[in-house]
């Protein structure tokens, strides 16, 4: 017992905090990957539009 609190309670609180941290980290990584995907698909779309414009004006 640490300061009258059972050790298992302290371990449980620490595990909850750790799980929250890992969830936030996963959310941040997922957001980053999603933004990269959106950027990549946007570039493909813009390239296709540019190609269509160049063939139309030729």
From TrEMBL:
Transmembrane segments: 6-24
Lineage of the species this protein comes from: Bacteria, Bacillati, Bacillota, Bacilli, Bacillales
Keyword Transmembrane helix: yes
Keyword Transmembrane annotated: yes
Keywords: Membrane, Transmembrane, Transmembrane helix
Matches recorded under InterPro entries: Spore_YhaL
The protein, known as: SigE-dependent sporulation protein
Native organism: Pontibacillus marinus BH030004 = DSM 16465
One Pfam family matching this protein: Spore_YhaL
């Amino acid at each position: 017992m640490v300061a009258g609190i059972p050790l298992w309670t302290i371990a449980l609180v620490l595990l909850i905090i750790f799980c929250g941290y890992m969830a936030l980290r996963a959310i941040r990584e997922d957001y980053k990957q999603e933004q990269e995907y959106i950027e990549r698909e946007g570039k493909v779309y813009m390239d296709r539009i540019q190609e269509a414009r160049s063939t139309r004006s030729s």
